[in-house]
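User: What would this chain look like folded?
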Amino acid sequence: MAGTQHHDPYALQPEHVREPPRAFSGIVRLIGPGLILASSIVGSGELIATTVLGAENGYILLWLIIMSCLVKTVVQNELGRYAIATGKTTLEAFNEVPGPRLKVSWLVWMWCAMVTVTLFQVGAMLGGTSEILHRQFPGVPITVFVWLLAVGTMVLLIIGKYVVVERVAMGLVVSFTALTVSCCFLLLKLPEYFSWSEVLTGLTFQPPVGGMATAVAAFGITGVGATELVMYPYWCIEKGYARSAGRRDDSPGWTRRALGWVRVMGFDVLFSMVIYTFATIAFYLLGGGVLRGMGLVPEGSEMVHVLSSIYTETLGLWSLGLFMVGAFAVLYSTVFASTAAHCRVWADLVGMLGAYDRTNYRLRLRTIRTFVVILLVVPCLYFMWIKEPVLMVKIGGIAQAIMLPVIGGFAVYLRYKRMPASILPKTWITLMLWVSAVLMALLMGYSAITRL
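Assistant: Here's the prediction, encoded as structure tokens.
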């Protein structure tokens, strides 16, 4: 965790100001927040929700998967832009929204409610990784592995720091994504599971056949979900983008630096989007091809065993062990990265409520570490209660999907009411921001009407 840093990444001090890199090679060396985000994305969303959506619907919702990956990145970019420009966290920005307040804004409390529900997803990931370990060591109950993994994660996050989170997340995600995309290419050689005509049908905007709940959950989780949108500015701040731009004074030097670091952040957003978009499409095609072709839908304690078919049917039975290792990596990366981010946001919330002085970095770190424990114990209790990883992912995904239009509208509000005029986005980005916000609202509206 950032606990071993010698300076407060949330404090904008003149000695930490530096010019942004101009060369592409320099920019690439400074990306990272998006990779942490990708590690929390390529887990519950891609491995579970996306493959379940494919198993239930075949290829007809490919349009939804692609849209889910693309449209939300504009909102992500603008939240990051505001953090760089002001040094303010997402919850601080939420707190500036007009409307009812109970110490903090109604939007902050709405976030609080959403995350409390989305912790079901973390419980599902702990359950999924524990199922994999249980298959290797059947004498140890799944529930024991759940608690062992939670305790191990607590230790890693409490003694770690930003760079550890970044590197572990990167390694876990890139390795499993590469393997899964390879499986997807092999799928092209299996006509019993793959057809280009069916893939093209998936681009014709058809409604789901397998249930709107799964579709909404998939839209909420795949690509950048609501929780990741909130997390991203925190990672941008801890990476040092805002600190390097310096405290806002609207001088030409500050404007140049801020725009330069926004450009670095834009590459970070784009790079991570390419990774999780390829992974998401691959998982969906494998679910829609292999699992639907075999008549299998992952559920209950057999979730991981059923999911392994996307490897064994394309690579052969020898790949079962490979899948188990990869699935463990990608599911655990979600637990690791999402907990690392959530504990920072929750610590921010209690600081805003006056529980401690947020300008005291030692107290912030102590609070973050406290929430590491809380945010791993609660998902464990959720799993003890439900013990259905697929259902738990759907519950969390629906909560995120409900929040998405609100965050989209909030990003538009930031653009017109709070963003410094000197670093406003270009016209085409503003247009895409509107498109993204409207699409989120339309999909959720369609879902609500369908349910009614």
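The chain has a mean pLDDT of 83. If you want, I can go into more detail on any region.
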